[in-house]
Design a protein that fits this description.
By secondary structure, the chain is α/β, with parallel strands linked by helices. It has two domains: about 230 residues, Aldolase class I (TIM Barrel, Alpha-Beta Barrel); about 70 residues, no CATH class. Helix content is about 40%, strand content about 15%. It contains 15 helices and eleven strands. The strands form two sheets. The protein has an eight-stranded parallel β-sheet. A three-stranded antiparallel β-sheet has the order 7-11-10, covered by helices on one side. Helix 7 links the parallel strand 5 and strand 6. Helix 3 packs parallel to helix 4, helix 7 packs parallel to helix 8 and helix 9 crosses helix 15.
Amino acid sequence: MQAILSNNRITQLFQIQYPIIQAGMIWASGWRLASAVSNAGGLGIIGAGSMYPSVLREHIQKTKAACSKPFAVNLPLLYPDIQEHIQIIMDEKVPIVFTSAGNPKTWTGLLKNQGIKVVHVVSSSLFAQKAEAAGCDAVVAEGFEAGGHNGREETTSMILIPSVKEAINIPLIAAGGIATGRQMLAAMILGADAVQIGSRFVCSEEASSHQAFKDAIIAAKEGDTQLSLKKLVPVRLLKNPFAESVLEAEKNGALPEALMELLGRARAKKGMFEGDLIEGELEIGQVSAMIHQIKPAAEIVEEIWKDFNLALAIPF
């Protein structure tokens, strides 16, 4: 493991100090969080999925002003203004893009022609192989435990990571159920080159998520999240009255159209950004049960890295 760390494919690919990547989460990861994580030696990511094009440009420019180190933008490929986002990313010379929720073949070639490194988020070995064939520089294998949008296969990280490792040759980043250095070590033993962490950074001081949402995460226990909306796009939510209404509708056989109407507009913004814990959509991972404090992002990175090295030194 020490040899792997000294020649780590992800730290070399991104030119970062630690193989720790902060996920690009909607309504949580703006320029403050991204720049704080990158300045701390990890890779910070701006979550473009909740941003209008002009807002994305502003966050990219503020990140560059606050940070001289590499950073990335997470880009859901189903976003309606995708072409504008792509143009802004190229204009602003963003060094790394993480894509998700769509076909990586569509934009990977264009981005790579601009010298941009491209990583795609997958939930299966098959999709990982397609991402590699599309020319992606690395993949994120995101297990069932993860918050936000999730794979329909419900494959846990313990199974997904080694399965994807066997299927591809490009670097592998593990995500889903990771918040500590011990979990990071476990993921790397299973074959990951690095980890992507979302939920833990939602509870950072720099995250733009609402304080009420952060407090709800701190209070969460095991079993307080559930995977919902599988007939639309599967998403893991913190249980609240809205999530319970979705579960009830699904039990009653609601069709996708009815679920879409129930979801309505701006439900995620209402919950995660505005702090409506009753009617809002609260996207978070199962590992929320292990998060007990809100801390500065740099302290979280340092804590994870210290915990990783302590676990690495334990004799077996």
